[in-house]
Amino acid sequence: MPKGEHLGDLEELTLLAVLRRGPAADGAGVRGELAEAAGRTVSISTVYVTLMRLEEKGYTSSWKGEPTGRRGGKAKRHYAVTPEGRAALEAVRAVRDGMWAGVPDAADA
């Protein structure tokens, strides 16, 4: 993660949702993953704003798929986590693991 760059909670969960959805994750799928796996209900516009912010940081990339008749001829935008995004997630995980290492078990507290 770039020095001084902070990965917010929703950004972290969104990156993980994109990874869970696979190489062609889309906004609706990411939203569903956030609700199902993380218990977070967010609007679709919040998902897209977060995905755009992650792309601006270089943590995701996106591309448009083929237009479909089901979507009225509109193409779906797909997302993938970049190597920089994966590194940012690993950095956050290392910090969290380090912090948890110093927390006593509930039975010890």
For the sheet with most strands, the description reads: 3 strands, antiparallel
Spatial order of strands in the largest sheet: 1-3-2
Number of separate strands: 3
Low-confidence runs (pLDDT<50, min 5 residues)?
none
Give the N-terminus to C-terminus distance in angstroms. Answer: 34 Å
Name given to the CATH architecture? Orthogonal Bundle
Whole-angstrom Rg: 16 Å
Question: Strand content of the residues, in percent?
Answer: 15-25%
Number of domains: 1
The helix count comes to 4
Order of helices and strands: HEHHEEH
CATH H-level superfamily? Winged helix-like DNA-binding domain superfamily/Winged helix DNA-binding domain
Portion in helices: 40-55%
Q: Mind telling me the CATH class?
A: Mainly Alpha
- What would you call the structural class? alpha+beta
Description:
By secondary structure, the chain is an alpha+beta fold. The protein has a single domain (9-66, 75-97), classed as Winged helix-like DNA-binding domain superfamily/Winged helix DNA-binding domain (Arc Repressor Mutant, subunit A). It has 4 helices and 3 strands, in the order H-E-H-H-E-E-H. The chain has helices spanning 9-21, 27-38, 44-56, 83-101, and strands at 25-26, 60-67, 75-81. Strand 2 and strand 3 form a beta hairpin. Helix 1 (9-21) packs across helix 2 (27-38) and helix 1 packs across helix 3.
